[in-house]
Amino acid sequence: MKLFQIQKRIFDIVIGFALLIVSLLIIIPVSILIVVEDGFPIIFKQIRVGKNRELFYIYKLRSMKKKGNSSSNVKISSGWSDSVPDNFVFKSTGDVNPNITQVGKFIRKMSIDELPQFINVVLGNMSLVGPRPEIQEIANFYDENQLKRLNVKPGITGWAQINGRSDMTHKEKIDFDLFYVENQSFKLDLLIFFKTLSVVFTGRGSK
Questions:
Q1: Which residues are registered as beta bridge partners of 47?
Q2: Around Cβ 145, how many Cβ atoms within 10 Å?
Q3: pTM for this structure?
Q4: β 55-61/43-49 pair status
């Protein structure tokens, strides 16, 4: 496992930095469009829950008007008690928020707003591969089994992303993520990484 962690970190730094540099070809012109439409700031940061429940800021290109930005765009049911319901399906209110900019609509649709997360990978609070970083308001309701997905670094892509769909239930997401946690290896990381590239370049899948 120690060898795997070393391999994983080297892969994250080398490939993550390379992808960050390449993504600047998209980030820079999009940043100019963001400023032209709604001024600064260009980057939006939001608190997410990482490995071992450590909080960190995730970086995205700003897609909401400055007056419409908030720390969270997810509605949590007041009926939750000691766990996140198995049938819960995440729906960000930001997707239909009237404060989303015209540029924001485009970059969300194309997942361009996610590109700054390569910064998180290089910094070390995210990995290229792992469960997607959870929103704090949801993670606060995790039960003991659900918390196991936080035993590894969150990732830009993961087992759930290459096997699931955008409307998967929370139980389905947890099952996929726990499979990764229990079977993580450098070989599995490479499989997920290259399958993700295949999805991106063929235009299949959704955000």
A1: 57
A2: 10
A3: 0.89
A4: antiparallel
